[in-house]
Amino acid sequence: MAEERKYSIEQLNKFSVGLLVKMGLTEENAEIVTDSLIFADLRNVSSHGIVRLPTYTERIGTGIMNLQPEMKYIRQRGATALLDAENGLGQLAGHKAMKKAIELAKDFGIGMVAVRNSNHFGTASWFSMMALEDGMIGITMANASPAIAPFGTATPLLGTNPLSIAVPAHDKVPIVLDMAMSTVARGKIRLSALKNEQIPLDWGLDEGGNPTSDPNEALKGSLVPIGGVKGSALSLIVDLICGVMTDTGLTGTVKNITDMSGPSDTGHAFIAINIADFIDYGLFAANVDAVVDIIKNLKPKGGAIYMAGEIEHNITEQKKKDGIPLDAAVVELLNKTAEQYGAAKL
Amino acid sequence: MAEERKYSIEQLNKFSVGLLVKMGLTEENAEIVTDSLIFADLRNVSSHGIVRLPTYTERIGTGIMNLQPEMKYIRQRGATALLDAENGLGQLAGHKAMKKAIELAKDFGIGMVAVRNSNHFGTASWFSMMALEDGMIGITMANASPAIAPFGTATPLLGTNPLSIAVPAHDKVPIVLDMAMSTVARGKIRLSALKNEQIPLDWGLDEGGNPTSDPNEALKGSLVPIGGVKGSALSLIVDLICGVMTDTGLTGTVKNITDMSGPSDTGHAFIAINIADFIDYGLFAANVDAVVDIIKNLKPKGGAIYMAGEIEHNITEQKKKDGIPLDAAVVELLNKTAEQYGAAKL
To answer: Residue A322, class by beta-carbon neighbours within 10 Å (0-12 exposed, 13-18 middle, 19+ buried)?
Structure first.
């Protein structure tokens, strides 16, 4: 087992904000990005957590990601808007866009904001959950670099293209779906590669389209889509909305986060639905609680019954108390990056 | 092999409209419902086609479905509306609601209409495709009777809860996803049962949660969700939007179309997205065509490469020429129903 050390939120926050500010981000923007990364670590989506910092800093350092974008709405009508991220950090673009979608939903019952010319935005649920405190359903989607083969081919062209939907409850933990169109997220395989761990055979296919337990082979090959043709089609549609409809790029042109040859050309879409425009909000939240009770009272098959997002919620609460464990190899990488940019070490 | 006979669209249309009018529907409403059924038969989704007529007429005949609903918008603000179907036919409610969503999207860039107190609405893509001719992306979802077990249980509580998304192209066939949250739609198993055919082992689970090749056992048990926990969570969320948010009923209360003990308490949601509010429409359509070309030019793995909805489109064109084949057993059932209600036989 790899060596681990636990860090508090404060420690990780100070480290990440310090590093990003050294890179040239404003304090406010560094806080937003850091919040997204720590959110991922707290929810055990470590692949999208603080481990990503060296890659982000490398993208900024090589000048292929814009540190000082002037993100502007280039189209806006009714309940919709299109934000140009100007090749800035995906977290900053998405944070701004989701806030806008929520404002539009306050005015029109539903709001949709698409984002063009953006970058990797971290965890999709971090945005969809922003809608919860306003009594809204939040929907987030993004395209990503080629990872899944269109049905009928063996060539990875489609992204894992995450889809997250967050639905508020009253006393219960909100229902939060955050899924890739593959059986697992690419980042999970990337973390296995970093840790030199083998992966289950239904995670990825090698370049020849054959199942593999080697994460590095899977990263070179393609990922298995959920439901076969269904996951493949859903991935394409997310790309048509996020990539083609934002005029950011054609399907297959998004660059992997580790590809430093140019801007990543990512697109996102955010939708907020104001529940009170369909039903009394209190009744809705109470009924979601009732549904959770109905499901929790079913006969469990094996262990306990968890709702979507509940395990992540529980882990977050636990890590807030106990600290966030980081692999020694990850910490070494983070400190090397900090040293490189003259920032304080972890 | 079962005996088949081919019918023209005109023959089926005359039969179906005649039967529905005898049941008390207006000519106009009978035409709308019939169009949805024949659409399904043309696309080889025969389980949602003309074969459903005896069940619809039985629901109407027993008085548990309202023949003369006064479907009204009980909430309406900005880009959203809530339609009360007053326990009328799902096709009629959905047709009205999707048209409204399209009108809202013309005014606000996006429109969302939810429907409460409705019934089985046929094929989800019939509605989502309505948005195509206005240069919009159409999204349709509905809840359905218990068929899928929430993750961690063996009890069917969640519906197959169809999701359809239609995206327009220029010269190419539009991209049309129409999926259940199960590996196959329940109706497909129902048709196998009607035809006394066995089903593949990854379609359904028996009452004990074990794989079965007997469609009748699977209809008593549960369906396998796509992507395991992902399909199960997506199904729950569709239900929270269509069932709970429309205040139609709590998850698990939708009645199966063959359950004649009372109203089915189904809900739907329709979203239309006006593409021209995000990008020049001509550029979008041309770029979707380009993406289709990119995918079609990949190396095929096995046979030809088809886009989502393309096989259904091709079959439709073929059946329009050659006629729509119906199983002799289905025709017998249809004619028995026609006889019962004094309508012309097929």
So the answer is: exposed
